[in-house]
Amino acid sequence: MSSEPVSKIDSAMASLIESGRHLYSAKKYNAKKCLRALGLFTRAMKSCPCARGVKRDRCTCKDFEKVAAQGGSIYREAMGICHCEVGRTFSKCDNVYHIQALHLRAATFEAMGKFGHAMKDAEWILELAPQLPDGYLHLGDIALLQKNDEYAWKMYTAGIEATKESSVDSSPKLQQLHSAHELLNRRFMGRRDPICLPAEIVTQVFSYLNMPEILLCLRVSKQWTCTLTSPPLAQSWRDLTFPDRAMRDPRPEELEKMLSWAGDGGARKIVIPRRMTLTESMLTLLLEASPSLEHLEILELRDDLFFPSNGKKWKRLRHVSIVGDAIYTAEDIPGGFPQTFLQYAASSLEHLSFMGIPKQWYQREPSIPLLPKLKTLRMSERKRDRFTPADEVLLPVFPLTIAFPNLEQLAFGPNLPDLNPEPVAMWRGKWPDLWPHLKVLIFEGQLKSSTNFTDVRTRSTLRFLMCLNRGNSLHHIRFAFRKECFHDILSNGDEMLSDFNIVQYSEFQNLRSFSSPWFCLSPAGAQILMSNAILTQQLTSFDITFPKYTRAGIIGAMDIPHLEGYEWARGAPSIQALGLYRFRFTYYDGSWEEHPLVQFLATFPNLQTLTLVPCCPPDELNNLVVAILKVTYLETIHVHLGNDEGFAQLRQAAQDHDVQLMELSAPDFW
């Protein structure tokens, strides 16, 4: 290589290019001048430091037009390593003078009508600097001159892909590239078969379709079938969410094909709807062919189905949701659910939900799989006649703390029988260690009419759960049950542990929300639960359910003293949402502006969302809401919206204050 400094070499190249440009740019075409210009441009190219003093030829192993015709990536072809002698000898080069000399030489060939030579020089630019727009732009322009518009469009598209990290305004060449692409884009994108797009784009397009829609696409043509079932499109078959509508159940051989199209690891998500007839052979095929399964939902598990019991493990299965009835055998036999199957997924399972709690979990010494990574657990019953009050069935909770030590979210219900805190002494000994990360606690309506015996145990269990880690790990609590005898759950002593005082064992400093749409918690209990979180400004939402009991048979007789018991919460700046349930305020006969509820809500400066479930007639509710809107800055009100004229005033008032009225909905902390 020459010992001259690079700056001198660049200067010499620039001089040669300028001389050649002067000859080439003559107003009148002159063959001799063009040939002399070609010689000068060639000398400039040979002077580039990338040649290292030897002759550098063009790469011959890359065929951009063939790649474009096959729907491949021109950019990847250009970036790939050459396998010819040129690729082994020389590296890429983005020297501005080298690129400029090639560009002008190609333009000179065009002026001479030698488009083949011009195309080769433009390809050489692309080979040298695939990250620059120059080669794509020049190749596309030559293709247009040769009436090969589709190849030009593909070349411009590849150039935009190669320079996507650069701003369009960063260079004139990029602006020209985008302009040229825009002129052709509408024409070719509008009529082009989407299956001919690059594989990554096809995958993205078909990711928006569900499985039945993709199956329909297989009927379009053989090309569609071949493309959609090819390895690059394997991602489209890894979500086997079968539809819950009228559709023929897939045959085993069809399932086997779909699983093979999913590639290595099989399906990642399997959802079996309630309507679909799931046989044991289908279940075995789906699970055994999907060792990389991550999500499993079976919305109707029959009692005659058994899971694979061959010892195969699912090391990526994180979510399992099963719906069944009282169908599980007392002993966990091989292939039974849940013990054996869940144990196979123990190393990865994080989310477990089932409707139809296994019988063995109700036993005095329950058989429960150990799931050290489980974060969320939701358990409920579906059949209301599974247990009777005489059964006094209790679900032991303490064994769950041992089996699932890292649980973060726990939901019981709906239709759940009562809870059992036994062995009570074990709670006392392990209080600081049980579920230290429990953030969500949900307990919904019980299955049956409980006895005093079961009520005592359920109430104690809930108290013990709320006091784990002094209640400071809890972020959300939801009690959705009609148990008036539980109103003092946080303010009285415990029947199971006589020396247990919840005030001494709890702080609740990090509570974000408390939801109780049917359950009336005493104001004293509410203060124990929420006052510290108000002081720390963590609490953003809570509910007040007014007493169900009446004075002399009058509904709402106790509403005013009940609301006065929440004096400690008035004006809390962190509160953004409030729910008010079962209120009537029968004994209040003053103006709506002075209504206790209106005055209470007016104290919260950041209140945005209000939920109202009253026991009063629509006209009273209308007047109350109108008064509330005048003293608050609400954005949303959740209320049952009637269709009669009685709600017209309410709708108009909300519209006047730019407040959105929405139907009632349960909060989702899950």
Automatic annotation (TrEMBL):
Pfam families given in the database record: F-box-like (PF12937)
Matches recorded under InterPro entries: F-box-like_dom_sf (IPR036047), F-box_dom (IPR001810), LRR_dom_sf (IPR032675), TPR-like_helical_dom_sf (IPR011990)
Organism in which the protein naturally occurs: Claviceps purpurea (strain 20.1)
Every F-box domain range: 191-240
Protein name: F-box domain-containing protein
